[in-house]
Amino acid sequence: MSRLPALVSLAVVAGVLAVLPFLLSGYHVSLVAQVGIFFIGVLGLNILTGYTGQISIGHGAFMAIGGYTTAVLSRDHDTNLVVTMFAAFALCFVFGVLVGLPALRFSGVYLALVTFALAVSVPQLPLKWSKFLGGRDGVQTSRTVSHLWLYGAAWTASAVLFVLAWLILRGRVGRAFRAVRDSEIAAVASGVELPLYKTLAFGISAAYAGVAGSLFVLATNGFAAPDEFGVVLSLQLLIGAAVAGLGSLWGILAGAAFVGLLPSVSTSVPVVGSEHGRDVVFGAAVILVMLLLPDGFAGLLARARRIARA
Amino acid sequence: MAVNRRKLGALLGALLVTAVVAGTAGASPQGTPGVSKKQIVIGGTFPLSGFAALYKTIPAAEQAYYAYVNAKGGVFHRKIKDIVLDDQYDPSQTVPQTTKLVEQDHIFADVGSLGTAPILSTWNYLNKKKVPQVLVATGDAFWGNCVHHACQGSTKPWTLGWQPDYPGEAKLYAHYIVAHNAKAKIGVLYQNDAYGKNYLAGLKTGLGGHANQIVDAESYNLGDSAQVIAAHVVKLRAASADTFVIFATPTATIQSLVARTLVGWSPDTFVNNVSANRIFELAAAKNGANLNGIISTGYVGSQTLTPNTPGMKLAKSIIHQYAPGGVGTLDQDFAAGDLNLVYGLASAWTFVDALKHAGKNPTRASLMKALRNLDEPKNPFVFPGITIKTTAKRGFPMEQLTMTKWSGGATGDWHPFGKVIGGLH
Amino acid sequence: MATVESSPRPGFRSRRTDVGSFPIVVGLLVAGAAFLLVGCLRSATFAQLTVQGLALGAVYGSLALALVLVYRATRVINFAQGELAMATTYLAWQLIQWGLSYWEAFFATLAIAFVLGALLEVVLIRPVLHRSAIAAVIVTVGLFILIDGIVNWLWGGGFKALPPPFGTTIYHVGGVAIARLYLGMIAVVLVSVALVWLLFRFTKLGLGMRAAALRPAEAALVGVRVDRMLAIGWGLATVLGAVAGLMAAPSQYLLDPTLMQPILVYAFAAAVLGGLESPTGAVVGGLIIGVTLTLIVQYVPAITSELQLPFAFAVLIVVLLIKPSGLFGRREVRRV
């Protein structure tokens, strides 16, 4: 992406986001905030999956860790909520690296299986250490936030983390990531330290998921409970990353909007109705998108760009 | 230039979407939210799908009752509209659904919502916004204990329970055990969360000096397989317990009852009333469980045991006529003995009773006042002799239970015995 | 198919060859079986738990068998395998409601499952098989969500159960209660794996399926209808999944849309433990995991039941780190 169109894209998005809270009701503001939360998670996962080719179906686990970090720090020490988000970032980076290290030994399908098992295992841990982590009845932050605060925090964090990602990806690290994805053998042959970069990618994507998790808990009225971090959350992140495709801000926005809004919108679909529209429509939409847009939204845009130029 | 046109198009598209979305935002109402000349809008969150979906007959019965009331003219000429939303027992869905109900659908009150963790995730929000969160379908003691006493930093005067609370129920079992088998060796199976732990604590309180007779307490987790539950039962038997108390959700209760018979163990068995819904015991019996003599408690009428009382006849006709899925769609479930249907009718009856007492032009405050001054000795769907009552001092609407015992084997039922017992606190 | 699954980092020295590991694996299994036997003879509780663990393991093994079959045929891990199994079980329930007996419904469901599986492969999986690896995974993930939604929509959350297929008889052997149900479940899974083994070893169809999976281009040259083999592979896998569901529901005494979700993770662990390419391994892996879980939760106080899933996760990791091809798998070489 050359610079000028990128800046214009950013300006457009920033502009719309700044204006939206004044046009929407509180409930809709919270919905758009939800998109912002998924934006962060999808962005992180995109770095891992899109840039280094490692498939993870377990990033919901990192969201859980980040979310519980915020909840516990707030409950026990009344920590400033933004500070807890930094703590979630750091803690999840560490956990991401810890997971990334053994993950080096697994490729493709095996990694997917391992991360899937991670996604279902981590939410069990609050049940084990229920005194500290609240068990099934959860942990409540000491303060709750308004829809507007959440909106501002989610999109500010999105902006900051997007710029961070851009800086990382345009430099040496980004080139190394791309080399790893395109051919591990060739990357090693040209001197790329495979383990370092693959683990780094895991750490970064986990850190992003951690921040998303913090915001996710804040969006749930500050209430963190195991039932919120089921396997579907990890699936949503992965779906968002796949729908997004690679290398496009609009793609990530589309992916985040897809997983953030479609479930709520599906409940108003007729026939299937409010009870079950959520899963039926969402599931069908996911399959359709994968069949029709294998390169995600970014691929669609790239094709459109090519046609527009022709 | 192609680039600029594309960006412009995207911007226009975004603004269009924004306009559409903004246009769907509900108009701000005048006066009391949810109350108009012709209608009262209420709502609640329930697990309509997911692992807790076997409770979905509760909101179905509530909707049926409101439809019945509406057919007779409504309350002060206002029809009740009940918006039932699915949260899959997942607090991260309960919160946006509740936000939608309050800020989008402008409900008058959140009525009957189900599940401890879901309620806990929204009670701060609803109390802050002074929205009644009432007749919640869970027996945790928070809903009665936190009215005047701060929980999580603030009192929750806008939250109210309905059913007899779990610790109180557990105390009843404790008193019964002490009265009938003072040297009992007690084994407990409980769910590993506040639901189960509060039951266990209530049992210990009720046992008093006999609490050390609990020889083993095994905890299980929601989602454990029947085989793991059976392993816990084996362990309790190995600890030489002669009394078995099950504080579980229905699935695990069924599995422990089957396991108990499977391993050839026949202790005095107590089952919590959430699991004492005839359809669950029938399922256990079908898989070989020997149920005769197991004991529980009850507080709603039984359509299978006393089908000819006026209350149960009314229940049958309402469920038949006004089932939300269409006439007759819940008949089979009702006939099999699903207590959830009677529960839903009884709870809805309480709400309508309170609504009538909230005045011709109800406000949220007047509704709360009516709910904190309930006096219903004759709710037709509640077990005869049990009164629903609240006062300034009494935050739990139901403080009585009747003891029940299963007899009749694989096609039997829960038979009440003895007098209605009060004083759960 | 260009690359084949394995784990070693480029340049990593390979360990002892796999020819030598087969006796070690068998030795370990025999030792394990001996340990169990001794335990059962010494303690009725131990025996009771072992029996229960084996029954549970039979269910894990059945689903693992389905996963392995799909993987062998199309190199895809079907994340929707559990939900497909659950959906076919609901179909059986519906057939029983319409008057069929359990076993009539059982076999009718297997037939429907075969067709369903083959259809899904043709319509949903084949178009994305040759694209990015992630695309096929996402399609099965979407299928997971879609099937869950459809089942909830059609059959709702009301309380349902299947009739007990083997009755409620209980045999008491030396203080241990063995439900006829458990014996039936173990028998069914053993028969299934035996039939699969026979299919692959001794039939032309089985040979064709193996060829289509391993060397599709060469197989096509000698006249194997590769397309058809892929579809049949999925059809068979769905049948095995249906068997898993039809055993799981009676073993849990109720039918619920979340029936197979906890089982899926254990089935993954079982499949990996046994070797993703090995049907026998899947079943053995399932039995091992079932028994180990039941015994560990009982006898190792630190591992309480909430740690079961993390335990399965740990098993997965350990197996993949030590012997990624599993107990019965052969290490495959990565072609550059």
Summarize the helices and strands and which ones pair or pack.
The complex is a heterotrimer of chains A (310), B (425) and C (336).
Chain A: H1 3-23, H2 26-52, H3 59-77, H4 81-103, H5 108-121, H6 125-128, H7 130-133, E1 139-140, H8 147-170, H9 172-182, H10 184-189, H11 194-219, E2 223-224, H12 231-244, H13 249-266, H14 273-292, H15 296-309
Antiparallel strand pairs in A: 1-2
Chain B: H1 2-24, E1 39-46, H2 57-71, E2 79-86, H3 91-104, E3 109-111, H4 116-128, E4 133-134, H5 142-145, H6 166-180, E5 186-191, H7 194-207, E6 214-220, H8 226-238, E7 243-247, H9 250-262, E8 268-271, H10 278-286, E9 295-298, H11 310-322, H12 331-336, H13 339-357, H14 364-371, E10 375-376, E11 388-389, E12 401-407, E13 413-421
Parallel strand pairs in B: 1-2, 1-3, 3-4, 5-6, 5-7, 7-8
Antiparallel strand pairs in B: 9-12, 10-11, 12-13
Chain C: H1 21-42, H2 44-74, H3 81-97, H4 102-129, H5 133-155, E1 170-173, E2 176-179, H6 180-202, H7 204-214, H8 216-221, H9 226-252, H10 261-274, H11 279-299, H12 308-322
Helix pairs in contact in C: 1-2, 2-6, 2-9, 2-10, 2-11, 3-4, 3-5, 3-9, 4-5, 4-9, 6-7, 6-9, 7-9, 10-11, 10-12
Question: Keyphrases for this structure?
Answer:
heterotrimer, A: 310 residues, mainly alpha, two-stranded antiparallel ribbon, 2 strands, globular, C: 336 residues, 12 helices, disordered N terminus
- What ranges of chain B have pLDDT less than 50 throughout 5 or more consecutive residues? 1-6, 19-29
Low-confidence stretches of chain C: 1-18
Please tell me how large the radius of gyration of chain C is: 20 Å
Taking strands numbered 1, 2, ... along the chain, how are they ordered across the largest sheet of chain B? 2-1-3-4
What is Rg of chain B? 23 Å
Q: Number of folding domains of chain B?
A: 2
Tally the helices of chain B: what do you get?
14
